[in-house]
Amino acid sequence: MTRSSDDDRTASPERLREQVEEIRHELGETVGALAARSDVKARAQRKAADVRQHASATAGQLRTRAAGLAHQVQDKVPEPAKDTAARGTRAARDHRALLVAAGAGAALVWAAYRSRRK
Question: What's this model's pTM, rounded to 2 decimal places?
Answer without folding.
Answer: 0.39
